[in-house]
Prior knowledge:
Helices cover 7% and strands 21% of the residues. The protein is mostly beta strands and 103 residues long. Strand 2 and strand 3 (34-38) form a beta hairpin. It contains 1 helix and 5 strands, in the order E-E-E-H-E-E. The two termini are 14 Å apart. The chain is globular and about 45 Å long. The mean pLDDT is 81.
Amino acid sequence: MSVIAVEEGIRLDCCDEDTAHVWVTVLGWSPRRAYLTGATPFVEASGKKAANLAGERFTARLDLNNPPSNEDTNGERLEWPELALRPPIPAEWLDSSMKGDVR
Length: 103
């Protein structure tokens, strides 16, 4: 999964304690849909500030056969079990056109 954008300084509802949120794409769920969710788990997994999360890639143990429905609204309370920064891709696994994407 990838963090494609960060929004800071807003609360999505009255019970929301997190004022930083991230837009995340999960290709296994949908290549065209982004999910807005709290930034805290991503901050904790990466050790980075929320403002620096855009472009970071993560892994999590997700049920790819059960994505959130299209009726879910912004601020959905998604869970990210075993969330971690994606390990670097070994250079020998990449063809010459992808050698720049090793983080």
